[in-house]
Fold this protein.
Amino acid sequence: MTTTTYLVPEISCGHCKSTIESAVGDLEGVDRVDVDIETKTVTVDGGERETIVAAIEDAGYDVVG
């Protein structure tokens, strides 16, 4: 299983955290998702990068890098 961390600069509150965790957590192949408000990162176990980035962007947030 692959663990990948994504930088999402717009993460600023618990609502952001909940929205992204719900969007990514429902994806096929994703075993775990953790949003860190302080570091503005999303760490995901499993899943495919393109699908995860698309889910974050569809939720209204930009992924950097």
